[in-house]
């Protein structure tokens, strides 16, 4: 992957690295949609999953 | 025309990632006649040639193939999705028998999760007891309040279906059956008020809501996007600024309503997976992200197909030429479509590969990318809307990181 493309993609992500652990813990401790999403992010395994179940896009 | 012939050859990525989801079309007809249905009203009309019910012989064969695949790839778990048409049209007796076949064959080999997607009109206490016995989870289609839902989801004789679906959801909400209820599927309709639609879904306390974008392609754009007939030649604006983004303008108020609730009211998969992608994590949704596709469809006659949504592309588009009687599921991994859909960014066209949102959006749903001239090597017909939605979500997430608690 080109470095400029990767850099551009990284710039579009939401980064939590600059936040203090206390701040992160406080945010992730809320039961809001964002708090739960942050929890999921912080709890993700170090090694990438092979695949999780991919939601099938179908209505009946 | 099969999945092998629909566009430029794929780049050929790594060897296949095992399938883990097996969608069985146990009934090929439906008691509703939803006017947006990709099975009955799209380019592919192969449902007409399918047996009405998947026979127990076919179920046994499919189960044996799942076992074979699970053993070959040492899968600790698999998911079987009972689908159709309307799967509950098979009746309780046949449903009980096929569930028994699946359990007896799969349980000794792998952890087996079974779910059913239904229009909800045939969910009765008797059916729910059966589903409870076999631990089958249930997802129901509901497009919003009665007027919204009944605009498209009617019986063939024109009768509305909302009242019956609401009654079924009332049953599912009872303490004894509550654990079976996985969630609701809602097809987005620009004619419906977005927040009103979302709140109507919340009335049934769904554990999860899946919003689905109506199917369409660059040749046959979705409703409201009739002017989008040529794929873009450049990635979208990473700030999400575009002239016309009706689906983003529908989804953004829903996102804000969901995001701003003092306590999360339900899981909304689209939003949660896109947020995961915005954190730099995997996106586990067929419609977004780059996670390898891991699902195969077994039609009522045992033939293997790729995702149903490909039916909107062309006759035969989901076809693989394979079936459970003669072929293993591993053979399905070698079709062009599957290889492309398991190749991550390598399976995308250049415009998507150059995009800042590649890892989040993933090019959008595969079938939504199709154009007759360039195959699937294009962004989704929803590209501008997805970019605007993702940019908005990113802004809200960044604001939340720094806002006082």
Question: Briefly, what is this?
Answer:
With 60 residues, chain A is mainly alpha-helical. Chain A contains 3 helices and no strands.
Helix content of chain A: 40-55%
| Count of the domains of chain B | 1
Structural class assignment of chain B:
alpha/beta
Label the overall shape of chain A.
elongated
How far apart are the termini of chain B?
A: 56 Å
Unreliable parts of chain B? 1-14
Question: What's the layout of helices and strands?
Answer:
The complex is a heterodimer of chains A (60) and B (405).
Chain A: H1 3-11, H2 21-28, H3 33-43
Chain B: E1 21-25, H1 56-73, E2 77-83, H2 91-106, E3 111-118, H3 125-133, E4 136-141, H4 146-152, H5 162-172, E5 181-187, H6 194-202, E6 208-212, H7 246-259, E7 267-268, H8 269-278, E8 295-298, E9 303-305, E10 319-323, H9 329-332, H10 336-341, H11 350-353, H12 358-361, H13 383-402
Parallel strand pairs in B: 1-2, 1-8, 2-3, 3-4, 4-5, 5-6, 6-7
Antiparallel strand pairs in B: 8-9, 9-10
Describe this structure in words.
The complex is a heterodimer of chains A (60) and B (405). Chain A is 47% helix and 0% strand. Chain A contains three helices and no strands. Chain A is elongated and about 35 Å long. Chain B has a single domain (21-402), classed as Aldolase class I (TIM Barrel, Alpha-Beta Barrel), CATH 3.20.20. Helices cover 33% and strands 13% of the residues of chain B. Chain B has 13 helices and ten strands. Chains A and B meet through helix 1 and helix 3 of A and strand 2, strand 5, helix 8, helix 12 and helix 13 of B.
């Amino acid at each position: 992957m080109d470095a400029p493309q990767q850099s551009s993609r990284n710039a579009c992500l939401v980064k939590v690295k600059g936040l203090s652990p206390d701040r992160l813990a406080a945010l992730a401790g809320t039961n809001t949609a964002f708090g739960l999403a942050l929890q999921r992010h912080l709890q993700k395994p170090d090694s990438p999953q092979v695949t999780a179940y991919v939601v099938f896009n179908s209505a009946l | 025309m099969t999945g092998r012939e629909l566009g430029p050859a794929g780049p050929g990525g790594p060897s296949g990632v095992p399938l883990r989801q097996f969608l069985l079309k146990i009934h090929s007809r439906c008691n509703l006649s939803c006017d947006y249905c990709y099975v009955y009203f799209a380019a592919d009309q192969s449902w007409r040639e399918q047996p009405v019910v998947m026979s127990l012989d076919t179920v046994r064969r499919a189960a044996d193939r799942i076992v074979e695949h699970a053993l070959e790839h040492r899968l600790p778990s698999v998911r079987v999705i009972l689908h159709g048409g309307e799967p509950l049209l098979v009746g309780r007796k046949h449903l009980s028998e096929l569930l028994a076949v699946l359990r007896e064959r799969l349980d000794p080999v792998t952890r087996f999760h079974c779910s059913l997607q239904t229009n909800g009109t045939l969910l009765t206490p008797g059916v729910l007891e059966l589903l409870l016995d076999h631990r089958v989870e249930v997802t129901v289609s509901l497009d919003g309040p009665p007027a919204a839902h009944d605009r498209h989801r009617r019986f063939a004789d024109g009768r509305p279906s909302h009242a019956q679906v609401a009654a079924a959801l009332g049953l599912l909400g009872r303490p004894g059956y509550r654990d079976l209820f996985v969630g609701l599927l809602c097809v987005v309709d620009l004619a419906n008020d977005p927040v009103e639609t979302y709140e109507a879904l919340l009335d049934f306390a769904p554990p999860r809501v899946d919003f689905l974008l109506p199917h369409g392609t660059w040749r046959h754009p979705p409703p409201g996007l009739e002017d989008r007939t040529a794929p873009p030649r450049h990635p979208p604006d990473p700030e999400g600024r575009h002239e016309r983004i009706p689906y983003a303008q529908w989804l953004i108020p829903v996102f804000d309503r969901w995001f701003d609730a003092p306590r999360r009211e339900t899981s909304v998969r689209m939003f949660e997976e896109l947020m995961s992608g915005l954190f730099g994590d995997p996106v586990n949704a067929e419609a977004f992200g780059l996670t390898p596709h891991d699902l195969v469809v077994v039609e009522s006659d045992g033939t293997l197909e790729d995702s149903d949504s490909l039916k909107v592309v062309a006759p035969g588009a989901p076809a693989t030429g394979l079936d459970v009687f003669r072929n293993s599921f591993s053979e399905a991994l070698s079709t062009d479509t599957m290889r492309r859909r398991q190749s991550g960014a390598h399976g995308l066209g250049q415009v998507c590969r150059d995009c800042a949102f590649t890892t989040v959006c993933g090019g959008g749903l595969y079938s939504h990318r199709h154009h007759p001239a360039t195959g699937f090597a294009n962004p989704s017909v929803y590209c501008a809307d997805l970019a605007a939605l993702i940019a908005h979500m990113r802004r809200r997430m960044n604001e939340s990181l720094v806002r006082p608690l």
